Amino acid sequence: MLKLAHKRVAVAILLGAVLVCTSGGFAAATPSVKASPRLAPASAPCTNAAAAEAQVAKQWRASEAALGVPYLTPPKEVVCYVTTTKYKKKGLLTIGFASQGPTNSWAASSDAYVRYVLAQNHVSLDYASANGSGATQVSNVEDLVSEKPDLLIVQPLSSAVEAGIHRAAQEGIPVVVCTGELSDTNDITATVNHDYALQGTLFAQWIVKELHGQGEIAMISGIAGAPTAEVPYQAALAFFKHYPGIKIMTHQYDNWSETQAKTVAASMLVQYPGIKAVWSDSSFTDVGVAQAYTAAHKAIPIVTGDSSNAFLRVAKQYHMTFALSSYPPEQCGMAVSVAIQILEGKTVLNQVQVPNAVYTQTQLGKYYRANCSDNLWVPSLLPEPILKQLDLC
Amino acid sequence: MSMTGASIRQIATSLSGLVAVFIAAAIFTPGFYAEANLVLVAQQIGFIGVAALGQTFCLLVTGIDLSVGAVSGMTMVVLAVVSGGSNSRLWLAILLAIGLGIGVGIVNAVLVTWRKAPPFVATFATFTLVEGALLAWTSGAPSGSIPTDLAPLGAGNLWGVPAPLLVFLGLLIVSGFVLTRTTYGRRLYATGSNLTTARMSGIPTRTLMFSAYVICAICAVLVGLLMSGYIGFVDYQLINTINLNCIAAAVIGGTTFAGGEGGVFRTTIGVVVLACLLSFMLLLNTGNAGQLILEGAVILGAVWLQTGTRSIRYRRRIAVAGIGEASIDNEVNVAPSHAVGVGIDKPTDNRGI
């Protein structure tokens, strides 16, 4: 009996491990951290909030203008300018970078752009790759703090890094977070990020406009529970509530996998043949949707997503109607620029919303790069030699 | 292999699960029976089935292969990078992918059979190693795309039957024949049933276990080819789902972790149950969480029923033999030449070995 019991335990452990592995344990496409109301940094005084909020509103308006949708009031957030004179440093600067690791083309481009910006500014880099593991990143941050860089940039994979960030703040090391939000800490000087709420709302606005407020739609998000998927979804949902003519027939997740997206879309096509638009946060989804509808010889619905060369190739091939908002891999590189300003003692925004390309099919020709790989995220700020080095062009 | 009462009960359990899914689908999601959806289910059966067939060989020899997803992912990357999207280099890429896949299978086999590493640890290490090697090779961004000539294999059909299903059925017939009608197959079962006895009977157990891992790796390469043809892109995310699905299908069908029990036909039942279940959940709009919970619950239920059946049979054998449990255990471990006959839950038919 003991042997059988051992076998049962072994089977249970095995299944548990397999479930962990297969439910995203090794996936590392996009940082997944909490996104809730943020605190003003305690490390520096917060000033001129009105001007800071105006900066955010300006970006919302620019994005809305790009898609020709009506103006909306951005959500209320603590955005302000912070003075950073106490962090002012002279001489050769060293910046520590706790990266998520080059686990996919987006992350590889992200790292490459960080190195490029640092080299341009003659700043030395103390780099640690988490290879997509939140646990590895926790120890990476601790190690980087021990090496006492002038500033620490963190590309968070989970909120577990907050302890390390707190230690950095205690030791007087300013911290800049990029491509993710950490809410349970006030130890962060600045966060450089994509506006996920803007993305979700914008796509919803565009769909309402294109369908004239009437029609069946589907929503497909990436990974369930990941804020980068949930924040835009919730923002879009809140917007759609004002338009009862828009009927959300289904909401599915595809783990940002083209294959799963194709399966989801093929199934959706069977159950809801009248779907006119697919709200999605990702171009992975859009590729799958295009393939599923094409295989079924049906008209492809209008779609939304981020901006990859792979999707633009497919969109061009099938003459798709779309609205895209790029998710720039250059965000952490932009965080380097903010970091350098902090080390120069300048006043910076505590919440930096990165500028991104927002466009529709009418501008496909401007953004599609036929001579480059499907893995390229467009538009790219990386110089040509680096794109070649990464085999992207 | 003769079919015992317990085997019949196991198959009946799996089939009843399938019937339950069919009934639930008819009540809650009538769209399940639409032709287009059935084609989708057939495609899923093909993808999951090919991987599950390979996994079945490993499970039969008390092994498991957690590197299936990594090998499939590696195949996609090799296809994209080596071919550069060009149809003229497709065959070269396929041959290289098969070669590398067999290489991974051999590494798994050597670790498990010669170094006696636990299969879970060895194949998990290989999974990580391959994933790391792919990252180092491609920096996370494999260049090139999948040659279009591969599309018919993953997305095509013959008289309306999806190509992946046809590939699976072809493999099923071959592997079914090999396992049930050849000496190799009988020896594979004997090795999984009782390794010591099989070895003492002169069966080349190491070679057989070795072959199981290589076969599994080849199946994983084939899944990579099918998936590449299906979507036309390198899809890293699939690495994580293939492992669970192929193990789940085999276990739901009744192929046990204990080895020597089950087979490809039972696995096929599990594959059909799983593919139908996944489609049903998708139509039911349960989301990822619901899907994982139900899938996990079904696997646990299958394992529960398996171990429950085994426990009952164990007690019955003890009662028939009229001896204590300790004696039985000793008999199995110390006197393996009797174990096949007395074997608690091992096939008693070792003819033709």
Which key features would you list for this structure?
heterodimer; A: 393 residues; alpha/beta; Rossmann fold; six-stranded parallel β-sheet; six-stranded mixed β-sheet; 17% strand; globular; B: 353 residues; mainly alpha; ABC transporter involved in vitamin B12 uptake, BtuC; two-stranded antiparallel sheet; 2 strands; disordered C terminus
What report would you give on this structure?
The complex is a heterodimer of chains A (393) and B (353). Among the domains of chain A are: 83-194 and 329-349, Response regulator (Rossmann fold), CATH 3.40.50; 196-325, 3-Layer(aba) Sandwich (Rossmann fold). In chain A, strands 4-3-5-6-7-14 form a six-stranded parallel sheet, sandwiched between helices. In chain A, strands 9-8-10-11-12-15 form a six-stranded mixed sheet, sandwiched between helices. In chain A, helix 3 (105-120) links the parallel strand 3 (94-99) and strand 4 (124-129). Chain A has helices at 2-25, 49-67, 105-120, 134-146, 162-170, 196-210, 227-240, 258-271, 283-295, 309-318, 331-343, 364-367, 384-389; strands at residues 46-47, 81-82, 94-99, 124-129, 151-154, 175-178, 190-193, 215-221, 246-253, 275-280, 302-305, 322-325, 348-349, 351-353, 358-360. Chain A is globular, with a radius of gyration of 22 Å. By secondary structure, chain A is α/β, with parallel strands linked by helices. Chain B has a single domain (5-342), classed as ABC transporter involved in vitamin B12 uptake, BtuC, CATH 1.10.3470. In chain B, strands 1-2 form a two-stranded antiparallel sheet. In chain B, helix 2 packs antiparallel against helix 10. Chain B is globular. The model of chain B is unreliable at 323-353 (pLDDT under 50). At the A-B interface, helix 1, helix 3, strand 9, helix 8 and helix 9 of A face helix 2, helix 5, helix 10, helix 11 and helix 12 of B.
